[in-house]
Amino acid sequence: DTEVTQTPKHLVMGMTNKKSLKCEQHMGHRAMYWYKQKAKKPPELMFVYSYEKLSINESVPSRFSPECPNSSLLNLHLHALQPEDSALYLCASSQEKSSYNSPLHFGNGTRLTVT
Amino acid sequence: AQSVAQPEDQVNVAEGNPLTVKCTYSVSGNPYLFWYVQYPNRGLQFLLKYITGDNLVKGSYGFEAEFNKSQTSFHLKKPSALVSDSALYFCAVRDINTGNQFYFGTGTSLTVIP
Q: Which residues 20-79 of A have a C-beta within 8 angstroms of B?
């Protein structure tokens, strides 16, 4: 079982909907990440938060909006998505962004389908 | 920039036989290398890492990896494959020069045949 919890597990939304993905970890990690993964492809980095501040935005379209309310929670707000945004969205955490020997711990993801 | 390559998209092995999943890396400076496994409809699970020290790294579920500096490789191995090892495997490198980002290989789908 993963120590990073993501909800919901599945989400179907229309292109005009607004929804949010949620991620929670209680390992005391100070770095949290959002990745997007297409089938049988490697994860693609979207955002990195370090000590609750956004430190990396990999040129992600503004229809994806991250939020880190506290050190344990990470949200991804979705609005006006396109069908090509359908994917598995993975949350991950690590001890600190600067800790080079700390692995990423992933949640099981949210399977998003945009109709 | 740092990168890893996984030359095989698919590896098939018979149950009970040894398995190898290949990874080569390209880094400037010291390599920080990781292996992850992904089962269907699940996130990535950390298997093992090489930071420094012994070239043979032991990890979860009986997996190990051999770091070879001269060949710039970090192959994942297991002495006796199980059907339950069938999954997608990713090699990754951590780039300390660009904010400690992880860069993943393209993945290798392992099928263990009963």
A: 40-43, 45, 48, 55-56
Pairing of strands B108-113, B10-14: parallel
B84: number of Cβ within 10 Å:
10
Q: Are strands B73-78 and B64-68 parallel, antiparallel or unpaired?
A: antiparallel
**Smallest CA–CA separation between A99 and chain B, in Å?**
8
Q: Which two tokens stand for residue A23?
A: 């991620």
Q: What angle do CA A105, A108, A110 make, to 5 degrees?
A: 125
Q: Per residue in A29-85, pLDDT tens?
A: 999 999 999 999 999 999 999 999 999 888 999 999 999 999 999 999 999 999 999
Q: How far is A5 from chain B (nearest CA, A)?
A: 10
What's the CA gap between B78 and B58, in Å, rounded? 10
